[in-house]
Design a protein that fits this description.
By secondary structure, this protein is an all-alpha fold. It folds into 2 domains: 19-181, Ferritin; 189-254, no CATH class. It is built from 12 helices and no strands. Helix 1 packs antiparallel against helix 4 (52-80). The longest helix has 29 residues, at 52-80. 25% of the residues are buried.
Length: 257
C-alpha cells in the first residue's frame, strides 16, 4: 500500500554536530508524543473506522508521520555521525552512548524507551478522533520546546516545518469531526422521529381550541401536555452511555448526576 520515494518532504542536511541536541530531538522519534507513536496510532485506528473519509484521512496522516519519523531519525543521525564516546560524554549524554553508541533508539529525551501505552485505539470514532486532535497538539507543544532549546538554523528550519504539519493535522482531524463523522453522530443520536412525534402530540392538544384568552393559558396547556407526554418515556435508548458521555461535555451543568 506504500510507495517509497527516497527523499524527505524537505531536505535534511545538518552541518554541525551536537549529541546533546540530538538527545532532545530523539523524543520526537520514540517519545510519548513522537512520530512513531503517531503513525502507529493512526494506522491502527483506521481498521475500525466506519466512515470511508475517516479511513482515508487516518491512512494519509499515518503514512505522512512515517515520513516525519524518517526526518527525525536523519536529524539525530547527522547530529551524531562520527562522534565518539568522549564527544557524547562532553555533551552530557555519555549514558546514551554506552547503550546505543551512534544508533537511533526510540526513546524520550529523558531516556524512557518507547511504549505502546503512548497510543490508543478504541474502535469508537468519537474517542479516537478526540485523542488524535489532542496528540497533534501535544506533538506541536513538544516541537515548540525543542525550538526553545535549539539555535542551529539547519535544525530549526526542519523542526518548524514539522511543527506546522502538526497544526495542519489538527485542523484536518477537526474538520473530519465536524463534517465527515456527521453520519456517525446521526446514527448515534437519531432525533428527527422523536421530535416530530413530540410536536405531533402537542399539536393534537392545541388544534381543538382555536382561541386562547391569554398567552399564559396556552403555555399552561402545553406544560400540562408535556408532563403527560414525558410520563410515557420509559424506554431505554441503545448506546445511551455513549450519548450521555457526549452530552456531558457540552451540557454537563444541565444533566443530573
Amino acid at each position: 500500500m506504500f510507495v517509497f520515494t527516497k527523499m524527505t518532504q524537505i531536505p535534511v542536511k545538518i552541518n554541525n554536530k551536537n549529541p546533546r541536541l540530538a538527545s532532545y530531538i530523539l523524543s520526537q522519534y520514540g517519545g510519548p508524543d513522537g512520530e512513531l507513536g503517531a503513525s502507529l496510532r493512526y494506522l491502527s485506528q483506521r481498521f475500525a473506522q466506519t466512515e470511508k473519509s475517516g479511513i482515508a484521512l487516518l491512512t494519509d496522516i499515518g503514512t505522512e508521520e512515517l515520513g516525519h519519523l524518517e526526518m527525525i531519525g536523519s536529524i539525530v543521525t547527522q547530529l551524531t555521525k562520527g562522534e565518539g564516546a568522549k564527544s557524547f560524554d562532553r555533551y552530557g549524554v555519555g549514558d546514551y552512548y554506552v547503550d546505543h553508541a551512534n544508533g537511533v533508539y526510540p526513546a524520550s529525551a529523558s531516556g524512557v524507551p518507547f511504549s505502546a501505552a503512548y497510543l490508543q485505539s478504541k474502535a469508537d470514532p468519537i474517542a479516537d478522533i478526540m485523542e488524535d486532535m489532542a496528540a497533534e497538539q501535544k506533538a506541536r507543544a513538544t516541537y515548540d520546546n525543542i525550538l526553545r532549546m535549539c539555535d542551529d538554523p539547519d535544525v530549526t528550519n526542519i523542526i518548524r516545518y514539522l511543527r506546522e504539519r502538526e497544526v495542519v493535522h489538527f485542523q484536518r482531524f477537526g474538520d473530519t469531526n465536524r463534517t465527515d463523522l456527521k453520519g456517525f453522530y446521526i446514527k448515534l443520536i437519531y432525533t428527527t422521529n422523536a421530535i416530530e412525534d413530540f410536536n405531533r402530540q402537542l399539536r393534537k392538544v392545541t388544534k381543538t381550541r382555536s382561541v386562547f384568552p391569554t398567552d399564559d393559558s396556552l403555555f399552561k396547556l402545553l406544560y400540562l401536555a408535556m408532563e403527560d407526554i414525558t410520563k410515557k418515556w420509559t424506554g431505554h435508548r441503545q448506546d445511551w452511555s455513549r450519548i450521555y458521555a457526549q452530552l456531558v461535555i457540552y451540557y454537563g451543568d444541565r444533566l443530573p448526576e
